[in-house]
Write a structure and sequence with these properties.
The chain is 44% helix and 14% strand. It is an alpha+beta fold. It has 2 domains: 14-260, 3-Layer(aba) Sandwich (Ubiquitin C-terminal Hydrolase UCH-l3); 265-306. It is globular and about 75 Å long. The protein has helices spanning 14-23, 39-43, 90-99, 110-120, 125-133, 136-143, 199-211, 230-237, 240-260, 265-282, 285-306; strands at residues 29-33, 48-56, 70-71, 166-174, 177-181, 189-193, 222-228. Strands 1-7-2-4-5-6-3 form a 7-stranded antiparallel sheet, sandwiched between helices. It has 11 helices and 7 strands. Residues 6-228 form the UCH catalytic domain. InterPro entries: Papain-like_cys_pep_sf, Peptidase_C12_UCH, Peptidase_C12_UCH_sf, Ubiquitinyl_hydrolase_UCH37, UCH_C. The active site is at 90 (nucleophile), 167 (proton donor). The record marks 182 as: Important for enzyme activity.
């Protein structure tokens, strides 16, 4: 896999994913975080177009092919499947793997993504991955949702063995088959027959089997569902409270996304300078430092005392 080439990491967050696709021109689709692995919970927010799963990546996951299901090297030609050819792009790639494979009668992906899909139609997976990685529009929208970091250039930094690596994959029904779409695999992975109506019931056991491969204490997973804009559903069923909650959620997402675009290091630095200046002027600086050191030592001692004995 190539270096990031200007792609930055983004969070697995429903607000980030929703506004990202809206900025790409997708209409009437949002993402919802799932807190349980229950098919009934998934059905409550239907229609579901697919899910995005984030997990800690083990280097050996692709060494022997898929860990579950079967590689489908004869998947339909019109199916969008792209190899991941660059770091940090897997979140957006997984999102597009759901949306570009959705029924066009159900999901309006907008002119830009429709043009990209048509342009890459018939490309082999590696060239599709290169086309995605080199798309200025998709990269710029993706990067607009990365957290500002004044210390590390996420676009050039290489992962080390000490880093925890995470990976996004997509699950979606295409042509009556439940597919796992993982850009690090050579082809889509089939998990058997699956209609749109069966998706909720059939995808949960597949995800659960993947989770079960990890130690019981591992909880660093995240599951996002691509669904119809829930405000539309609220209007259709006449649920004013639901509509109000969804409108409030959008306002909160907008605020959070705006904050992601800024770093507050400069502000924090100036604030600390002001505090120090005040302490020096009042003659309490030395006592303040001593108290802080004492408090830190107490915290360290309490933490060490709470550690389990061997």
């Amino acid at each position: 896999m190539a270096e990031s080439g200007g792609w930055h990491t983004i969070e697995s967050d429903a607000g980030v994913f929703t506004y990202l696709i809206e900025n790409l021109g997708v209409e009437n689709v949002q993402f919802e975080e799932l807190m349980t692995l229950e098919a009934d919970d998934l059905k409550q927010i239907s229609p579901i177009y697919g899910v995005i799963f984030l997990f800690k990546y083990n280097q050996g996951d692709t060494s022997q092919g898929p860990i579950d299901g079967q590689l489908d090297r004869n998947a339909p030609n019109h199916m969008f499947f792209a190899n991941q050819t660059i770091q940090n792009a897997c979140a957006t790639q997984a999102i597009l793997s759901v949306l570009l494979n959705a029924d066009k009668e159900q999901v309006d992906i907008g002119g830009s993504l429709r043009e990209f899909k048509e342009f890459t139609d018939g490309f082999p997976p590696d060239l599709r991955g290169e086309a995605l990685s080199n798309s200025d529009l998709i990269r710029d929208v993706h990067n607009s949702f990365s957290r500002s970091n004044p210390f590390v250039d996420e676009g050039t930094r290489k992962a080390t063995e000490e880093d925890d690596l995470y990976h996004f994959i997509a699950y979606t029904p295409v042509n009556g088959v439940l597919y796992e779409i993982d850009g690090l695999q050579p082809a889509p992975i089939s998990h058997g027959p699956c209609t749109q109506d069966e998706f909720c019931d059939k995808v949960i056991p597949v995800i659960q089997r993947r989770i079960n491969r990890y130690n019981a204490g591992e909880i660093r997973f995240n599951l996002m569902a691509a669904v119809q804009d829930l405000r539309i559903k609220a209007v259709e069923i006449g649920d004013e409270q639901m509509l109000a909650r969804e409108e409030q959620k959008r306002k909160e997402w907008e605020t959070e996304n705006e904050l992601r675009r800024h770093n507050f290091v400069g502000f924090t630095y100036e604030l600390l300078k002001g505090v120090v200046k005040e302490k020096v002027r009042d003659g309490t600086y030395d006592d303040w430092i001593k108290q802080t050191k004492a408090a830190n030592l107490q915290k360290a001692a309490a933490a060490k005392k709470s550690e389990p004995e061997d």
